[in-house]
């Protein structure tokens, strides 16, 4: 199923039960543009959330996560969440919901050997992989698959077989992204596997917190409280896993956003300083030049 507009859950006569029942039976794709949308509660299936422009906010387990261009968010089966778009800028979202039967069959094909698949081609996989519900970098290959899928849907309409083929390869890429996250879990300084996984999940909460609030003054104490890790443990484990400290990671987020604004906006350097959360223009220019070897003004002229 393919939708090019977001439903208005508050519209008179809107049947939420009917709407959400579709996600259990079908793969569902949204490609929509909106500057005002709100879903108070959704218990969905495995899904990927991306935006081409603007931002969409999700509330998962009482934490707020902003999805912006260049990132995607994974949510697992039966995860309760809410989402909203309420900024002045229009947001172009692309979300894909995978039905449980479909995703299970793809995961079984990806994770079982060929002999097993030949002997029992139609068995279920059992327990499906549990994705880390965190922000991922939207690499070029994955982004291209999503863009090609949307272009095909717009040009040729929804054909179930063609879409299922595209979603099969998309799920394989998402599984590769998940395996990369599992590899990072191994970097956590702990002995028990369950402890490693739990610490990694909390580090991801801190990472998502920085991505979502980078425009505000940094607060290591608040970040550690949000992640339920002491500040020293957060710093030590974050460096072990992501090869950089939380402060350095936050600076990278801010500089990446500054580059986007220098390329795609007419905002002044002073305005960009404030938008990116730097204390003052001098600090912004020093950090930018250290990272890119040119000043922000010179960088803009080079584009």
From TrEMBL:
One Pfam family linked to the record: HTH_18
Q: Which domain of life is it from?
A: Bacteria
Reply yes or no: does the keyword Chaperone apply.
no
Q: Which Gene3D superfamilies has this protein been placed in?
A: Homeodomain-like
Q: Which InterPro entries match?
A: Homeodomain-like_sf, HTH-like, HTH_AraC, HTH_AraC-typ_CS, Tscrpt_reg_AraC-type_HTH
Q: Where is the HTH araC/xylS-type domain?
A: 204-302
**MF terms in GO:** DNA-binding transcription factor activity; sequence-specific DNA binding
Keywords assigned by UniProt, alphabetized: DNA-binding, Transcription, Transcription regulation
The protein's name in its UniProt record:
Helix-turn-helix domain-containing protein
């Amino acid at each position: 199923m393919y939708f090019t507009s977001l439903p208005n859950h508050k519209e008179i006569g809107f049947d939420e039960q009917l709407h959400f029942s579709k996600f259990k039976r079908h793969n569902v794709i949204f490609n929509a543009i909106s500057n005002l949308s709100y879903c108070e509660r959704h218990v969905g299936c495995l899904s990927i959330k991306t935006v081409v422009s603007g931002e969409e906010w999700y509330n998962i387990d009482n934490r707020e996560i902003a999805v912006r261009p260049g990132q995607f968010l994974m949510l697992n089966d039966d995860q309760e969440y809410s989402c909203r778009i309420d900024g002045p800028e229009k947001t172009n979202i692309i979300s894909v919901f995978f039905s449980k039967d479909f995703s299970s069959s793809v995961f079984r094909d990806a994770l079982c050997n060929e002999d097993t698949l030949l002997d029992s081609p139609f068995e279920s996989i059992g327990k499906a992989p549990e994705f880390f519900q965190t922000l991922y970098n939207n690499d070029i290959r994955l982004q291209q698959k999503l863009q090609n899928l949307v272009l095909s849907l717009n040009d040729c309409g929804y054909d179930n077989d063609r879409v299922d083929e595209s979603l099969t390869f998309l799920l394989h890429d998402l599984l590769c992204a998940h395996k990369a996250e599992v590899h990072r879990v191994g970097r956590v300084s702990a002995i028990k596997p369950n402890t490693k996984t739990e610490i990694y999940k909390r580090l991801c909460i801190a990472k998502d917190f920085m991505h979502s609030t980078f425009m505000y003054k940094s607060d290591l104490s608040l970040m550690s409280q949000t992640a339920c890790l002491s500040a020293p443990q957060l710093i030590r484990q974050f460096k072990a896993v992501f090869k950089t400290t939380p402060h350095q990671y936050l600076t990278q987020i801010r500089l990446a956003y500054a580059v986007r604004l220098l390329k795609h906006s007419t905002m002044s350097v002073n305005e960009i300083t404030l938008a990116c959360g730097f204390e003052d223009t001098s600090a912004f220019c020093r950090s930018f030049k250290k990272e890119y070897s040119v000043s922000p003004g010179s960088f803009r002229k080079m584009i």
